[in-house]
Amino acid sequence: MQGVGEVNRRRGDLQPSIGNMRIMHVITNMMASGGAEVMLLRLARASGGQRPLIVSLMDVSERYHSVIADLGLDVRSLKARSTPGMLRAVWTLARIIREERPNAVMCWLYHAMIVGQLAAWRSGTGVPVFWNVRQSLDDLSSMSASTRLALTLSRHLSTWPAGIVFNSSRAVELHQAFGYRNDNCLMIPNGFDLVAGQHSDGRKPATFGIAGRLHPQKDYATFFAAAARAHRSCAAIRFIAVGAGLTPDNDAVRAMIAAAGLPLDAIELRGNTSEMERFYRDIDVLVLSSRTEGFPNVVAEAMNFGKPVISTDVGDAAAIVGDTGFIVRPGEASELAAAMCRMVELEPSEYATLSVAAKNRVDRNYSLPQVAGLYDAFFRKALEARPAKSGEAWREARSA
Predict the structure, then answer these.
(1) Fewer Cβ atoms within 10 Å of its own Cβ: the N or the C terminal residue of the chain?
(2) Could you tell me the end-to-end alpha-carbon distance of the chain, in angstroms, rounded to an integer?
(3) Beta strands of 183-330 (E only): which ranges?
């Protein structure tokens, strides 16, 4: 859901970065439209060089199939939808590693980190494995039992990978406090295709948007409560919500909205959408009410369109927003509502200043070529420090 349409943009604008290396990416699932899936495809497009191989342990959505076809990527799904399926995936992935002989394996998300690490060991190839951690641990209670188990298991294996990439400084801090131990940890933020000329058109902000699937981590109950308070103070405020589950026919969503006291005609529920560009253009301000995040893509994406952000202080949200928006404590509906009202009270010139500052901050810090270069340097440094027993050496030995 988050920026899937952006993955295909300006494919020809980026120079190859990983060159002759071939990276195998292993991800838990590509059925959802989350930040990890979107960033993986962006990185695969930006990397150039040899075509990367992507393995989804579970499945690949139709939407991603079309993106993958356009990019000419080699993507495979292992259909592992249960614990026994994940165990079988270790053997299947080990076989793929032996056949493909990648220079490195990058594992995205906790389940993939475990399966990918064990599969690489099982393959007997000696291929270096890297992990990619995509969230912080601000609120463990909002994780599913399966994710908490995978997190705990990954802690015990955290000395095994050749390096770990975190997409937020907060994630590094909390995972190390949780017990992660690895000598090669690096924070690399998410990267974005920059949108040209997205600034305020001189009006006062009145439409607030929120984007994310219906999940306890996103804390929609707090958002709806804050929206209701802000709407009582300023009846002209309107809201747009996008994300899986956020549809008018979802009884759970309607119940939360009713409990909060927010009129149904004040909020537009668009559900899961591929039209994120339209969403960002339709709103004046993005709101993030999450209880936990790593690097929240939607925050930087909204700023990329010149939209100021009100966010809870989770993950690296405050570092991304800086002084271009407002930060409040998680779970505090009154603070979130007050920030909305404060935004509405801005003069058009003040709102325009925030809009320009938000756009410039993303342009300066989070461009996709810049981030792809950081991954390039990370891989090269780690691989150069290892014995020359992978990639080209394996392929040469195999063809001899």
Answers:
(1) C
(2) 46
(3) 185-187, 207-211, 238-242, 267-271, 285-288, 309-312, 326-328
Reduced to 3 states (helix: H, G, I; strand: E, B; else coil), residue 131 is strand
**Domain co-membership, 24 together with 127:** yes
Query: CB under 8 Å, gap of 24 or more: what pairs does 343-347 form?
Result: 343/205, 343/208, 343/285, 343/308, 343/310, 344/204, 344/205, 344/206, 344/230, 344/234, 344/236, 344/237, 346/204, 346/205, 347/204
Mention every residue, 6+ apart, whose C-beta is less than 8 A from residue 230.
Answer: 208, 237, 337, 340, 341, 344
- For residue 17, what are the contacts with CB-CB under 8 A and spacing of at least 6? 46, 47, 48, 49, 369, 372, 373, 375, 376
Residue 199 lies in a domain: no
- Return phi, psi of residue 19, to 5°: 60, -125
CA distances 242 to 125, 236, 257, 372, Å, are: 44, 20, 15, 28
Residue whose entry in the numeric block shows the structure tokens 């948007």: 209
pLDDT value at position 20? Answer: 73
**92 token code pair:** 């299947």
Q: Specify if 198 maps to a domain.
A: no
Residues 314 and 284 in one domain: yes
273-329, pLDDT tens digit by residue? 889 999 999 999 999 999 999 999 999 999 999 999 999 999 999 999 999 999 999
Residue 85 maps to a domain? yes
pLDDT for 28: 96
Q: Are residues 212 and 298 in the same domain?
A: yes
Which residue range is the domain that position 319 belongs to? 207-365
Contact 115, 90 (CB under 8 A): yes
Q: How many structural domains comprise the chain?
A: 2
Residue at 149: amino acid letter: L
Cβ(61)–Cβ(78) below 8 Å: no
